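Escalated from tier 1: adenosine monophosphate holo job.
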Amino acid sequence: MNEHMQIILNKIKEYKKIIIFRHFRPDGDAIGSTKGLAAILRLTYPEKEIYLQNSDFSDYLAFLGKEDPPLADEEYQDALGIVLDTATHDRISNKKYSKCKEIIKLDHHIPVESYGDYEWVEENRSSTCEMIAAFYEAFKDELKIDKEAATYIYTGMVTDSGRFRFREVSGETMRLAGLMLDQKPDVDTIYAHLYLKEFHELKFEAYVHKKMKISQNGVASLFVTKGMKKKFGLSNEAASASVSYMDSIKNALIWIAFIQNDDGSIRVRLRSRFVTVSELAEKYHGGGHACASGATVYSKAEAKALLNDADALLKEYKEKNEGWL
Ligand code: AMP
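Tier 2 regenerated the structure:
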């Protein structure tokens, strides 16, 4: 147990109403950690009011179930707000979070900005869900968990760690995952939801493999236009998944998907092996983790500039290092 955990538990005990938030465009960790914490708190403190208040959702993760209907603005004033898995205030899905009486930030991203009255940030954790599992473990004589809560938390641990593949995965990650598995979540169903694809999404994957490019020093990239999304009948979320279709090319230590948003701006998803790309993302209005970051660019010229920077970064990496694949 660490001092942050104790402060957070004390704050949770102090409040009758707790509202839980996460980042927009939620992934498995954002949804898993918020729903997992909410489930633990509802089981442990049935007398408290616990709400999940967010303004967007994910089709892909719809199997984890709904969040709560919107609360009236005045409901926030006497609540403790807990924001999970969100590095910066501008990425919080529900902007009303700031109306809460006090705010806790609990996150595993590189800390680029402080918000909130209390913070527990551990950038070496493989997921925020892992932190929720650690929080549960620290107070397991006091907190309650069940199969449903463990399903949310385990799903986030699985997805954010790349199926327990990324370098942040530690012995502690696996022990905490084991603690969740003790609750017997239905792993067959979880993995079916995570892996099965629509027919048209597989067709799009084949198209991506045909269209992707590789730069001189090995940056793989793909530009998904609004027209391509329309042609394949893709949601923004399905189009954005294209980044992972480029994740296993030898020599391509950096791979980047540019996805044109409906307003013309371009979402950039950067992924890498060995090379740190978060600083590159920060240069282009973004941030994230060493090997998984996001950014936004506002023109094709800016996208090209980002690609050139990525190529230069990879060139430098390859000159200074050996043993990469
Ligand atoms: P994405 O490609 O959007 O899944 O982002 C990869 C990682 O970078 C996630 O952990 C995001 O939370 C983080 N990230 C994405 N966009 C931004 C941004 N604009 N600022 C800070 N972090 C970001």
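The radius of gyration is 20 Å.
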